[in-house]
Amino acid sequence: MPVTNEVGIIQVGRSLKPQQAMMDELLQGMILIGVVSILLLGLGSWFLAGRSIKPTQLAWERQQTFVANASHELRTPLTLIHAGVEVAQRQSTSEPQKQVLEDVLSDANYMTKLIENLLLLSRLDAHKLPIEIQPVLMPELLDELIRQNERVLSSKEIALSTEGDSLIVLADPVRLKQILLILIDNAARNNHSGGWIKITTSSKLGKAEIEVSDSGDGIAPEHLAKIFDRFYKVTEKSTQDYHGSGLGLSIAQGLVQAQNGTIEVTSKLGEGTQVRFTLPLAKKPTLA
Fold first, then answer.
1. Distance of CA 247 to the CA centre of its chain
2. E-only strand ranges, the chain
3. DSSP state, 281?
């Protein structure tokens, strides 16, 4: 009987297709459960967030309504106080009494301005401030601003100048002028005798960029992040003619944004401040 070293191997097995199909079904079921869980979690979060945000939104709307109503109600008595003090001031013959009346008049003017600012901010928050966008010739607007501010700034020995491109911007001329007056006023109050304020216009990336720079005190870095917060004051500097409310830059920011623009502030302590804001450029008319 012949002897060999060959070994035979017989493999016995069965198909794994049923198990694979079962695993596929299990995987699909788990994926479906995961998707449904995520959807339920998202809907629940949305529902809870809506319930928590709604009272806050209602409170905010009530606050804005209160500010608007209070502002309207206070304007009339303040106007009467202002008129009465002016009459008493003209009729008074006592210098100490005139000084007291002058202080009352200054405070009445401050309160009137504060109420107007609060009313303006409430309209901006509610998106109810009328904005009439139209082409505005910057050279004409800047010439008007220089004429109106020249006398006051000359008395403080502060020079106001303009430079840059002759731009036509798309803006509300009244609100644009208001923005620039706020920035000029801030620059003047934080400047010094012999200082300067400069308004520069240029176009960048299809936008008009307007910068108001000054040679004033500058702003410390820790204040820059809060510079647009309402009622925030870098200093408590006040004079008989001006009491800062900390609302000027908040209003300027709101007015710029309402006209499809952006605004930013850069400054270095002791080296002045630069406020830049952008507005859409108007297309220059083509000659026929």
1. 11
2. 134-137, 159-164, 168-171, 196-204, 207-214, 263-267, 273-280
3. B
The rounded percent of the chain whose pLDDT value lies above 70 is 78
Give yes or no for residue 248 having a pLDDT over 70.
Answer: yes
- Reference 185, options 248, 240, 108; nearest CA is 248
The pLDDT tens digits of the residues spanning 152-172 come to 899 899 999 999 999 999 999
How far is residue 279's CA from residue 256's CA, in Å, rounded to a whole number? 8
Q: In 10 A of CB 125, how many CB atoms?
A: 16
Q: Output the CA–CA distances (angstroms, integers) from residue 56 to 15, 88, 124, in the order listed.
A: 63, 47, 19
What is the spatial order of strands in the sheet that 273-280 belongs to? Answer: 159-164, 196-204, 207-214, 273-280, 263-267
| Tokens 């709604």 sit on residue | 54
Which domains are seen in the chain, by residue range?
20-129 (1.10.287.130), 134-280 (3.30.565.10)
Task: Look up residue 217 and give its DSSP letter.
Answer: -
Cα–Cα distance for residue pair 224/74, rounded to 1 Å: 33
First vs last C-alpha separation in the chain: 117
Query: Which tokens sit at 278?
Result: 């952008």
